Amino acid sequence: MTHELRVQAVSQVTDRKPLPPKMPQRLEALWATDVFTLSKMQASLPKDVFKSVKHTVHTGGKLDVSVAGAVAAAMKDWATSKGALYYAHVFYPMTNATAEKHDGFISVQSDGSVITEFTGKVLVQGEPDGSSFPNGGLRSTFEARGYTAWDVTSPAYVMETDNGVTLCVPTVFISWTGEALDKKTPLLRSIAASSKAAIRVLKLLGHTNVAPVNSSCGAEQEYFLVDAHFAHSRPDLLLTGRTLFGKPAAKGQQFDDHYFGAIPERVQVFMQDVEERMYRLGIPAKTRHNEVAPGQFELAPFFEAANVASDHQQLTMTILKMTAKKHGFVCLMHEKPFAGINGSGKHVNWSVGNATQGNLLDPGDTPHSNMQFLLFCGAVIRGVHKYGPLLRAVVATASNDHRLGANEAPPAIISVYLGSQLENVFKQISAGQPESSDHAGVMDLGVDTLPVFPKDPGDRNRTSPFAFTGNRFEFRAVGSNQSVSGPLVAMNTILADSLTWVADELDSKMAAGADLSTAAHAVLKEVMDKHGNVVYGGNGYSEEWHKIAEERGLANLRTTADALPVLKADYIEELFDRVGVLTPVELESRFDVYAEQYILAIDVEAKLVISMAKTIIYPAAVRYLSELSGAIANLKAIGIALEQETAEKVAVLTKSMTDMISKLAAAIDKHDFATPEEHMQYSSQTIRPLMDKVREYADALEGEVADDFWPLPTYQEMLFVK
Length: 722
Ligand code: ADP
Ligand code: MG
What we know:
- By secondary structure, the chain is α+β, with helices and mostly antiparallel strands.
- It has 23 helices and 20 strands.
- The protein folds into 4 domains: 25-182, Roll (Ubiquitin-like (UB roll)), CATH 3.10.20; 188-215 and 357-575, no CATH class; 221-344, Glutamine synthetase/guanido kinase, catalytic domain (Creatine Kinase, Chain A, domain 2, 2-Layer Sandwich); 597-720, Up-down Bundle (Four Helix Bundle (Hemerythrin (Met), subunit A)), CATH 1.20.120.
- The strands form 4 sheets. Strands 9, 10, 11, 12, 13, 14, 15, 16, 19 and 20 form a 10-stranded mixed β-sheet that branches. Strands 1, 2, 5, 6, 7 and 8 form a 6-stranded mixed β-sheet that branches.
- β3 (106-108) and β4 (114-116) form a beta hairpin.
């Protein structure tokens, strides 16, 4: 194999005609046409059934299972009218993936005829094999029973592909013994827990009419698009989602010419296709743009209630991948597909609010006098400080390790950015009574024809992992491949814990005679005295911050191997148990699953490094050497001396690479580890550096070997040929 595949790929990409853009349809004609919405239910259900379902959806109240029969029948009629013959309980196992088991509506009658049928029982409960998904020891292979159960708060929808239409019902996934095997169950529990605690605080603040509190989530998804011709000739992209080899192209992102640049035509047609599907599925796609790295893009929806947003985020990832295929791309959501240029994250914007008091993290114009906001914001500050390592642990994956702390993404140290206005208000709280809020001011551009507009009260800080951005927090350390559920669970859980603490403190201070205002100020002062250390407004990438953070006692958990064991710490176990989100057994199973995934991910990569280096890169180097040495010898025979340095260099690099391959091969042969912790450290400290070393030699070879001998599509081709 020489570079023929590459040449073919380039010409195929060049000759490719982009799919013609579809005539854009009116949003109203597209919106939620593939969703079994409340209004469709209202039109097709008996009044009392609809009222009962709507009550559960809007208040999170108990589901009356007796309505399921009527809902199922209406759902089936709607889905079959859209062409569905099958339905699927969709669930979210601990792998970050989405799983579904398809069953036909078909029911065979005694006379051999068939009808379609979808009963309440089947809607409410399914029974996939519980042992075939990672469960961290919660289920053995022989204890196979697992259940999926209908989540009425996340609407059912139909998924249409070229191969047919399927009714999809979002569900939770639990074991026969009742333990959560998925990412949705804890999310729902964490929403309920934070609602309960928030309502207590709101009532103490004097509100009498308090609606259930929900958390909101708007997740910004970054991704790369690579033409399928290139991606399919790269075993590493196919199997691991990232390039394990590849010399950075001469041009990367140094000109800043891609960020917010004009979207390439082929990509824009793709994006519009994605958005149309999202609109049909009721997912409010809102923002699209080129990202910093060449070939990198971003998609952000309008925010939604956390549970629905989380299901929609999973769907968005599915749609991106599916649609990319149609357009001849491969969509890479790995956190670091290419070395030397930015990787991809998923900023999770998060807030809490309800129908009666609105967004509880909205500071208003004068935050210093907005006690409600200050208490909720203070609760977040306390939670992030107390449980920072947990926030680090929920974004810990093998792939995200390439990004965090690499001066393109937030550092592994978890701190809170408040912006100058709020930082100042909280400083005043530490010093005593907050008296004033800096005014945001207006932006006068000094040109009469340009508008004067109000300025935000605080700047942005790209280097903070957890930043307040006006009326919400933005958790910026989340990986692009991850389910948003884990981060949301962590944020809701620490908030529930902190708000319960706030309510307890207010209760006891007021019982001792303090008035509300005095009690609340005392609570806030205590938050700042004990936890103000977590607030940091400076440059999170700087060396200086690493020093300061250490002095402040903030953890710096650099790798997944360092961070995941936090899930086993007593104080984290107590937190999840106390708040009622995960039992100790469920939490431990999560550690087991995530640790195993980390180890497996690195193991697969290491094996692939070995096989690619041996069977693709080594042969290329040797062929080139043979040609070079032949030329040197032939020329020598006629009395011409050709320089020999190149041949020597290639020979030395090839030898160094094969030596390193042997070391890596020996290293992955070790299997006797006392604990998963020990195994993770080994993967992180021994295997990964050896992989990097092999790559170093291979990439150096790429810089020496004749281009027409190099079989792997290059960075230049993958990133710049569209
Ligand atoms: P930026 O890149 O400037 O951070 P984007 O527009 O790309 O902003 O994304 C901001 C995200 O934050 C959007 O998904 C938006 O809907 C979401 N968002 C806005 N307000 C809230 C809120 N109250 N709760 C959760 N998410 C929110
Ligand atoms: Mg953004």
